[in-house]
Amino acid sequence: MAGGLGVDKLTKMLDRLGRWAVAGVAEFGFGAALVGESVFWLAMGRKRRQPVRLGPVVAQAMEIGIGALPIVTVLSGTIGIMLAIQGVYSLKLFGAESRVTLGVAMSTVREFAPLITGILVAGRSGSALAARLGTMRINQEIDALTVMGVSPVRFLVVPALVAMMVMLPCLTLWADLVGLFTAGLYIAPQLGSTMGAYVNEVTSLVQMNDMLHGLAKSVIFSVLITIVGVVNGASVSGGAEGVGHMTTRSVVHAISAIVITDMIFVFMVTR
Fold first, then answer.
1. Is 94 helix (H, G, I), strand (E, B) or coil?
2. So what's the pLDDT on residue 121?
3. Tell me: the pLDDT tens digits for 240-255?
4. Cα 158 from chain centroid?
5. What is the DSSP letter of 46?
6. What pLDDT sits at residue 165?
7. What ranges do the domains of the chain cover?
8. How much is the pLDDT for 181?
9. Do residues 236 and 222 touch, judged by C-beta distance below 8 A?
10. d(Cα 100, Cα 89) in Å, to the nearest integer?
11. CA distance 92 to 140
């Protein structure tokens, strides 16, 4: 009897694991298909008489980029000061506090600015995209677009994807500037230097490859945020409760995807 119960529990566990694996692969395939279809509509939409309109892209860009400027500015400045404080404190133990500018500059430009900006946009705009698409799915508005002969991907996904791919790197660049500036407000007095000397040191240390490293990651993050939001929004069922569940799921998945992708990206480019 006990052996039979053990086998039954193991079978149920393997069944659930298999279902989760199949669902995960299906979601990944759905996301990849969305990327491919989005590229198709960008390239062929005008020939199909369904071009991607500039108006929706600009509206999405205003919501994603301009609307996120205050919170990105505040947190980037805070992180810049935090890195400066920790850097000076840690390097002072070895008598190497004069090298703090190098550590702060590299950390901000290559890692913290794109990562924090991506997480903020995922929590702010990625969740909003999932909620909007989920509500439209519950109200059968997406089905109505299909019946009218309008591609939901072209009408709903492509503008958000293009706007995200443009605005997230811009926000990352802004986060670089704010983080480095606020770090300098602490580092310069601690080293008995001036802001002008600090700026000169930063510009001599930070190379174009370092900037491109962070901006390339932000482009990848923008695709992940959009696709995760769309996949979760399109999978909503069960009314308002389902919308709330998928919105939360979208944020968790997007942040997890950003962090894991960041780790893989850093591993690959630093080999």
1. coil
2. 94
3. 788 888 888 899 999 9
4. 16
5. T
6. 94
7. 53-270
8. 94
9. no
10. 9
11. 62
Q: 156 is written with which tokens?
A: 């709903």
Element (DSSP H or E) covering residue 244: helix 239-269
Both tokens of residue 137? Answer: 């799915």
For position 266, what pLDDT does the model report?
85
pLDDT in the model for residue 270: 77
Say if CB 21 and CB 122 are below 8 A apart.
no
> What single letter denotes the amino acid at residue 27?
E
Q: Are 215 and 115 in contact (CB under 8 A)?
A: no
Length of the chain equals: 271
The residues of the chain scoring below 50 in pLDDT are 1-2
Place of tokens 């694991």: 17
CB-side neighbour CA atoms (13 Å) of 159: 21
* Phi and psi torsions of 267, nearest 5°: -60, -40
DSSP per residue, the chain: -HHHHHHHHHHHHHHHHHHHHHHHHHHHHHHHHHHHHHHHHHHHTTTTT-PPPHHHHHHHHHHHTGGGHHHHHHHHHHHHHHHHHHHHHHHHTTT-GGGHHHHHHHHIIIIIHHHHHHHHHIIIIIHHHHHHHHHHHHTTHHHHHHHTT--HIIIIIHHHHHHHHHHHHHHHHHHHHHHHHHHHHHHHHHTT--HHHHHHHHHHH--HHHHHHHHHHHHHHHHHHHHHHHHHHHT--SHHHHHHHHHHHHHHHHHHHHHHHHHHHHHHHT-
- Say which residues have a Cβ less than 8 Å from residue 35's Cβ, sequence separation at least 6: 223, 227
Predicted pLDDT at 44: 84
Distance between CA atoms of residues 153 and 39, nearest Å: 10
Distance CA 165, CA 167 (A): 6
